[in-house]
Give the backbone structure.
Amino acid sequence: MIRLEPRPDPSNIMIGLTPIFAVIATMIFGGMLFVFLGKNPVDAIRMIFWDPVFGEHAFYYRGQILVKAAPLIMIALGLSFGFRAGIWNIGAEGQFIMGAVIGGATGLALYPLDSFLVFPLMIVMGSIGGLLWALIPAYLKIKFNANEILVSLMLVYVAFNFLIGMVTGPLRNPDGFNFPESRSFQDFPSAHNPELWAGTGIHWGVLTTLGMVIFAYIAITRHIFGFNVRLAGQAPRAAKFAGVDPNKMIAICLGISGALAGMAGLFELTGPAGKLTTTFPVGYGFTAIIVAFLGRLHPIGILFAGLLLAITYVGGDIIQSQLSLPKASIQVFQGMLLFFLLAVDILVNFKIRIGKGISK
Amino acid sequence: MKLLKTLMTGAALVVGLGGVAQAEDKTKVGFVYVGPVGDFGWSYEHNEGRKAVEEAFGDKVETMYVESVPEGADSERVMTQMALDGADLIFTTSFGYMDPTINVAKKFPNVKFEHATGYKQADNVSTYSARFYEGRSVIGHIAGHMTESNTIGYIASFPIPEVIRGINSAYIAAQKVNPDVKLKIVWVYTWFDPAKEADAATALIEQGADIIMQHTDSPAAMTIAEEKGIYAFGQASDMKQFGPKARLSSIIDDWAPYYITRTQAVMDGTWSSTATWDGIKEGMVAIGDFSNDIPADVQASAKALKDALSSGATHSFTGPINKQDGSAWLAAGETADDGTLAGMNFYVEGVEGEVPN
């Protein structure tokens, strides 16, 4: 019999170091994977982790890492509040889509208005789109105690079909030969979210994300709201006695995560993606769940986790084209990262006991 | 200091990184695929084209590819990465790569780009596609003869002109030989999702279809057809191994000749921006072997149709053809012009249902 026994006092240093151990373990076992695929593991690992940041063409990749990381971090920040409070929003992908559709539709309705107010209005509408979409599971949970995991997840598929309906119908580009796509925001300057400094990849969404990290850091460590969130998650009864209204908590946590996911969707749409298409969602909302946990639900941790995952995406494309590796091998590699993180986590928090004896 | 350096090199990217390429004398050719090369359909055939380029030029070329690249920002990054790594020619093989291709092409004026199935060109961006609808005529003809339930199931991906053209072409050919034939269409909104494609095939069979056609990339529907003992057609690649009994014939995309020609043009310095739309005649669209289940006379008439399409004696869209609402489209003997075909957004008379809107 192998049993897990909780460590009475898990080491804080070890908890902080787990992501590093996980990355090292991923490099070792991922390296073995590349050996089995007939490639030089040192080259492969270097291409994934080193080249995007310090390699020959890093001047380009660094910006792309920010482009890739920004939506992940922004969504994960929003999710982290709910996850801390024990409220599981799994449908950030749907809120991301709705933010892009509602915010994007607002902009397209104003085409070709030339005003500096268009873009801020779109950001607000995008956030509201995500917010309202996330309040559906919140309402159903408060009113009928419906499971928010299922409801929010199911709403992803509803949102996706809504997106398809919009781009094949009302939002379709009238000059686009009937292809199911909206107008390009690149051709609509007042709604465009451009690269602010050429070659850096930085757009308004990246800057906003950085601001959100600081904001979330203050909220969770210095503000009574952050305290209430943590209390609700760790000791729901105590939270009730302290006057934390659980229903309010559900609405606020889902609302925040929805609004941030919606905003991320709007920035992605008007910037890197450029237009609404049926292939607009590429899974940021789901990957952000991994980022949130990889980052320990802590704003600074999420910042680094988002960057790390973005590096593996960019690096993953590099090794694919340089070493002719299949995409699946990169996905296995990324999966290993999460697996080892969870595994190391368990070893830090639990002791493994073999045999029947109960240790004191 | 580091930041300054980053910004400066960043600026260099804009000023003209086109010069980075050409470091070696090998011609580097990049391919961006929307699905996995193991889809045994669309991306698989593009990858076969890539292999043919390697075979044709041996040491003189180096190819690279990235598979399953999402359309949008990710594809732009992958293309830029290939250009930075010294690609001289890059094939972007999905419609959704259109704007990213144009964007990256602007940054690398010395790199040649070839975008499949799109409509935006630039000085260093060509477009190319195949007249798949000619193949649809041939398999529609066979299906019209072979169906006993008079119901053909059609798995459609996205309601874009390319797909609607295929539906119309298959229907016109089937209806010509079997006036009672009906098309049942299921829209799956994906190019590659074996689970969804399989579900669609099952649903169509339950609605009485005894032949399945598809405009998606995986052989999932073929395997379902084999299981249920009905017929299907290979799409993009032959797919025989997935339905030895079910497969009647196939529409095969053969990109190899085009890819070799274009690579040669880059080597010779004769490459120029073109818009190519080739069909059976040029060999870009091929029809797979006929199954022995097809009676000899149908095989003969299908082959005759293929030859006529190839020689130009007949056109898939030859009037009289009405639109679905009964309004006249093509007069007797009139053939559709490429412009209308390229933007086709309506069904022809007899196709049931509505173009999703």
